[in-house]
């Protein structure tokens, strides 16, 4: 093995380690929506090992995900090579993971923002897409609490003006 090959192998190893330990869910899907990559975040929150989900349909693993809706989200990613986004305001979560954060313990499930991105192969085709799943439970809980307080302040003002 040449020094260049060894360096490439070592670099690949630390990049794979980073992929497994980053605090973001990373899932790679092919055009049939079969799971090709399932990182440590996904394993930790789903309770499913990568070996259990690899080559299985996302819809088999998560039957609550509507196939037509999800395919429409993925279509421009595969065909136009553009990113697509899902925010917690549109849909609180794609993967129904329990909330594990003590600060936002009032929320039952993890709120998620998701980015879909094309993965262009060496031949220039997009045969796979990546999903990056971000835990935004803290942000969602804060916004919901803020909105609730705003409603309460408005109601209190209206009550005071009616009593005056």
Automatic annotation (TrEMBL):
Gene3D superfamilies: PAS domain. Residues 13-79 form the PAS domain. InterPro entries: PAS, PAS-like_dom_sf, PAS_4. It comes from the Bacteria. Signal peptide: none annotated. This is PAS domain-containing protein.
